[in-house]
Every structure is written in C-alpha cells, then in structure tokens.
Records
---
Amino acid sequence: MSAAPRKIIHVDCDCFYAAIEMRDDPSLRAVPLAVGGRPETRGVVATCNYVARRFGVHSAMSSARALRLCPDLIIVPPDMARYRAASQQIMLIYQAFTPLIEPLSLDEAYLDVSGQPHEQGSATRMAEAIRRRIREEVGITASAGIAPNKFLAKVASDWNKPDGQFLIRPQDVAAFVKTLPVEKIFGVGKVTAGRLHQLGIQSCGDLQRWERADLLRHFGKMGERLYELSRGQDERQVETDRGRKSISVEETYAHDLPDLAACLAKLPELVDRLQARLARNGNPAYRGLSVKLKFDDFSQTTVENSGSQLSNVRFGELLRAGHARGRRPVRLLGVGVKLADENDLPRQLRLFGKDGRPLPDAEPEA
Ligand SMILES: [Mg+2]
C-alpha cells in the first residue's frame, strides 16, 4: 500500500473486425454490418458496427436472429489474416509506450505505464497518443480506460466508448465504485448477479456494507473477490507473455452443444485455433493440456493432464472426462496448454504433484 499507485491503461478497439472491414471498404460504413458466419450454417455474429447495434444486433448472437432484427444487415465472413496484421501494428504502437503489455485479444490489452517518461508521465496523454496513433496508422478507432488497476481500467474503457477515454484517478475510486452496478465486476455473470440482487445488492456500494466472512459464506471464493473489487481494489499485475502461465482459446456457442458427440465435433477447430495462437506467441514450450467446459447451468469444470502433444485425441480424452462430470448441454468449450517454465522447477512440481499428475486447478477467471 505504501507504493505509488499504478497507472494502468486498458485499450479496446471499437468493433474491431467490423472496423477493419469498414476501413477497407468505406461503402460499408453507413450500412448495418456484421462480421460472422452465414445464417444457413448456424453462424454467429463475431462483431457488428454501431449502425447494426441500433437494431439490437450484438456479438455472439446467431446470424439468423440478427437478420430477423435487421433484415438489411450485411454479413461478411471474418478475414483473420487482415485482423491479425492490424493487431500486430497496434501491438507495436503499445510497445512504444511500455514493455508491460498484456494482450487480451487481437484488439484489447492492458498496459502498465507506471513510471514511463512519455507525455511527461501523464497516463491520460499517453492514452490519447496511443489512440491517435491507432487512428492514423491503422485507420480505426480505439477507446481507453485509465485507472490504478486492471479492473477499473477495463470498466473505464467502456465508459466513453466508442472513440473515447475515461480516467479514474486514485482519489476518485471510492466515489466511482459506490454507484457501480455489480454486473460490472468481472466474473459476475447472470447467476451471481441474480443472487446478489436477491440479497438486495445492486451496486458495489451495497456490497461494501457486507462483512468479508458473510460474502465468503454466500459466495465461496468469489466472495473474497467481491469484497475487494467492490472497494476498487485489484492487485493483479499486468502479465506480459513472459510471465504468462498458460495459453488457451475458448468459444461460447450460440446454441448449447447437446451432448458429448457435439462437443467432440467442435474440438478440431478449437485445437487449430490454439495452434495458431501458440504460433503467434513464438511456439513456447508447454507441459500440460487442459480442457474447460461450461455447462448450460453455468457450472464449470477444467480437466488437465501433463501431456505435451497437441492432438485431438489427447484433448478428446480430457473432454470426455470433463463432460462426464456434468452430463449436461455445454455452452462453452476451451482448450489450452500450461506453459513450461524451465527455470522454475519448484513451481512445476507444485503444479503437477510428485507423482506427475496435475493438482486440482484453482482456476482464476479469465
Ligand atoms: Mg474491442
């Protein structure tokens, strides 16, 4: 607590995939546009522009439903190669401001700019400069949040979206969180929000009136997080690729996968994406595979082994074991690898136990 407050910027491009499409074909700017799969193949909207959002179209919605809401909607298929090229340009811009960058996706990242000399050390002006360079060099807009920690920076980047930014100074935190709806806390989904509302808790200010022990009793491990985040406290560091412990990809399906066979059918596509993601990260060494499932009742399980072979067969074995724990329709599937850290043997032993079997995973929310 004695250290100076950190300066974290969360940068998030505005409707990224759609923005790239509009940049490359200006005739798409004025029309409702979505990037996603075809409705006849049960495709899903990945991103849509703000014109389409006025019709109620949003990401993760089925393309068929999006077209019912907005019959003039133009749906273009994703072109990941172009999005990745833009993403690399954006990452280079970030690197001009700080080496402490944690990418969350192609267009979103946390930057720790504490102590950086640029713009006389003003994080607000660094955020402005970053957004200006993205506009000028990449040709799209981005929004930014500036705050003393990751949680608040991410909330703030949404505050003046699109093409805006918002600053939460350390001395503003208490007043800011007081009225912040609990839904804005990361990890609070529909189920937890519903339970909080039942207890009469709508805002972080309401949450602050609860004792830590009572929150732990009601919400388990999540209660601890609720206690701290409702006070605007979040000590998580910006984790660069160097410090990263795992790499994973996941997909939330617009239609729940009804059974194990449906889940297995989705596996090759996820493993391909994981492979591409690893390649983008310079193919780091890894020890251990994991499969994550979220069922239709929002319960979640992760199964791991210590394998180092990225194969559909190996992931299939984990998927079978995980599915057997729930035997329900599945709304989300993820596959990942634990990165090897050759210099950190004690941690490895802790991770996998003396017998080489993985220890139960105390999984943090992504
Ligand atoms: Mg974005």
Note: The longest helix spans residues 260-280.
---
Amino acid sequence: MPTVLITGCGRGLGLEFVRQYAADQWRVIATAREPQATPELAALGGNVRVCALDVTDFAAVQALAHELREEPIDLLVSNAALARMNPPFGSTDYPTMRRIVETNAIAPLHLAEAFVEHVARSELRAMAFISSRMGSTTLNTTGGAYAYRASKAALNSLVRTMAMDLRERHITVLALHPGWAKTEPGARVEVDESVRGMRRVIHRASAHETGSFYMFNDTVLPW
Ligand SMILES: NC(=O)c1ccc[n+]([C@@H]2O[C@H](COP(=O)([O-])OP(=O)(O)OC[C@H]3O[C@@H](n4cnc5c(N)ncnc54)[C@H](OP(=O)(O)O)[C@@H]3O)[C@@H](O)[C@H]2O)c1
C-alpha cells in the first residue's frame, strides 16, 4: 500500500486529498494545525494517521520526520498555505507578508528537506507542491495580492530548483494549480474535481516532466 503525507488537512483541498487517497486504500499521514477541530479526519479510520503539525514550526517538522524515519513516503503533498490578502500598493502589512512567505514558500522547502529521505526510499518518489496561478509572473496582468503572489512565485522557483537537484535521486517534483476551487466564495471548480485532477496529473507525470507547473486539468502553466 503506498503512503502519502499531506499538510494542511483540516479543511479545504487538503482534507479532500485525505478523503480521496484514503478511499483508494492508500496509507495517509494527514497533518493539520489543529486536527481535533476536524473530527472527520479521525473518523476516516484505519489507514489514516492524523498528526498535529504547523508547517512553520521547524522543530515539529523535524520531530515528525524522525518519528517516521522508517517509513517510505511515496508522495509528499505540500498543501498548507495562507490565503491571499489584498492590501493595495501603499498599504502592505509587512508582518503578515512575512508570515505568508514563510508559510507558503519557506516552509514547503523545509518540509521537502525534512522528508526527502523518506521519499527517496519509496516506490513512487514524488513531491507535489500546491501552488497557484497567482504565482505565475507571465499570467500576472491584474496586479494586487502582493504577498500571496510573491509567496507562490517563490514556491514555483523553489519547485523548479528542487526538481533539478533531486533529478539524480529520481524524485519527481511538481507545482500544481488547483483551479479556482470552491473553498473560496465565488469559485467555479468543485473541490473533489480539483483534487481528482491534481492527483491524475501527479500519477501520470513522468520523470522527465519534473519541475513542471500544471493546472488541475493537466494544462501546463507558464512560470
Ligand atoms: N482554493 C483555491 O481556489 C486555490 C487556488 C489556488 C491555489 N490554492 C492553494 O491550494 C492550497 C489549499 O487551499 P485551500 O483552498 O484548501 O485553502 P484553505 O481552505 O484556506 O486551507 C488552507 C489549509 O492550510 C492550513 N494552514 C495554514 N497555515 C498553516 C501552517 N502554518 N501549518 C499547517 N497548516 C496550515 C490551514 O489550516 P487551519 O485550518 O488550521 O487554518 C488549512 O487547513 C493552498 O496551497 C492554496 O494556496 C487554492
């Protein structure tokens, strides 16, 4: 049975990743800041192991990596993130911007470094980083959302760099855009459809596509 570790599983797309992999009989390590706030996680049962994890708590990430040191992890899904905040130019809230960049870019790199050995010794050897179209520099024609855009653009750069560095270890590293999924008001894409699509991309992507940026519907996005 393959194993997936997912961050930010208390709600939204992270919780849906857990539901879908658990339904497919994967072993799921579901991490969330406050797992007790999501009773559904514990109720999913046998093959889902629930762990409390704030991804910006590096000591906690290292402790979990150590606790799981014997376990191969086929797929690491770095999903946890702080959503966009949109103070306009001239009103940037710098403490918040630092937290967003730390959560959305720095913490995913640290997560990958903490779990690379677990992934390297698995069968699938894949890491998926949930990014955003808002991190695409090419597609930015509307401005705004400074902190969120910068954090996801930084994540995209980190994904590309990790992909190059981890190629020789046969680890496939992808950046994925979920579409505008219905965890947000006004969005268009059903959450289960978004996650099903991203999983399809992860499982069909071949090693030579490492370092790519895909949308949930399998189209390539420009950086
Ligand atoms: N929904 C969309 O349309 C959309 C579009 C583009 C990209 N994305 C990306 O898709 C991913 C999931 O988004 P979503 O819509 O499901 O967002 P969401 O509903 O806001 O969920 C985000 C999750 O991340 C967790 N989180 C935040 N900071 C964390 C930390 N320091 N440590 C651990 N967990 C933390 C949250 O935990 P708490 O419950 O404890 O707050 C929550 O479970 C994110 O990377 C997001 O940027 C979403």
Note: The first helix runs from residue 12 to 23.
